[in-house]
Amino acid sequence: MSPTAFLAAAAAVAVAVFVAATTVGNEYVYFAGYTVLQYIVLATAWNILGGYTGYVNFGSAGFFAIGAYTTVVIYKTLQLPLLVAIPLCGLTTAILGLGMGYLTLRLRGVFFAIATLAMAIVLHTLIVNWPFVGGARGVYIIRPRDVAFFDGYMQFLFAVMLALAVIAVWIARLVERSRLGRGLAAIRDDELAAECAGVPTLKLKLISTTLSGFLMGVAGAPFPYYVTYVDPNGAFNLAYAVNSIAMPLIGGMTSWAGPLIGAILLGTLQQVATVTISSALSLLIVGVLLVLFVTLAPNGLVGLFAALSQRRRHG
To answer: Is residue 214 scored above 80 in pLDDT?
Structure first.
């Protein structure tokens, strides 16, 4: 399937999802659906660097939070609408990703992971001590009362995040099947051998960090309008970092479909647990599923299905 045909099919699915959510007529569907879609974008963004390239990023919450706080800055200064703010937020975090990559990509393995975690801590400290965006006290965001073509602003946010999820998955698939994706896979499999074969490893890794950072910032951009109150602890929540890693691991890190499957599965389970039992159960679900999949299906659901299909063909 060509990229254009894939995008058209994904858009058709997105329209069907939106129609189904509207038909239900329950406002909570938009709140829960927004969260799941947000994790699709985050997990897909993480996978471009962590899955395709093999560099584990523990700073996802930092990029997400900077995207959210860029929206806050735009809200307090320029008063631009959300649809204009989103690409600006992505540009900000893309530059951050490029800078982070330039400073840390010469590190490998656990040293790179620790460096990204340290970056998130530094960003958290800077936001806490920046009074303009509310500092440690946080800041309130007032949603517009009405938005054209939608019954409410939450429905509009759901539609925006649905569109962002489609675009993120389309970009991931495009990267995976491109020359860039093949170069990133070579780096993941054996970076030294890739360098010896003439692959411009540093250049490709910088592209990967920039693109991953862009999508993470885009995922965080609508967040202030979703919660209407942003504080550092909420924006830099550990759940964003943990879920953005766990979802590709559960779904499968070497395919664009893995983060999508993992985010839908894990995100839905967390929302159901929040409603029926307790929101504190979310991270427990993540931990249990991670242990099970790392032990029983280290290549995720995509890898498990591929292995089962291969056995059937040879059986």
So the answer is: yes
3-class secondary structure, 97: helix
* Cα distance between residue 38 and residue 227, in whole Å: 13
Q: Quick one: how far is CA 135 from the chain centroid?
A: 25
Three-state DSSP at 269 gives helix
Question: 206 - beta bridge partners?
Answer: none
Say which residues have a Cβ less than 8 Å from residue 49's Cβ, sequence separation at least 6: 55, 57, 208, 209, 212
More confident residue, 261 or 294: 261
Indicate the helix (H) or strand (E) that contains 229.
strand 229-230
Cα 133–chain centre separation:
23
**Dist CA 257 CA 239 (whole Å):** 21
Supply the pTM of this predicted model.
0.93
pLDDT tens per residue, range 268-283: 888 887 777 766 677 6
Q: Are 244 and 45 in contact (CB under 8 A)?
A: yes
Kindly state the tokens that stand for 158: 């759901």
Residue that is written with structure tokens 């609508």 in the block: 222
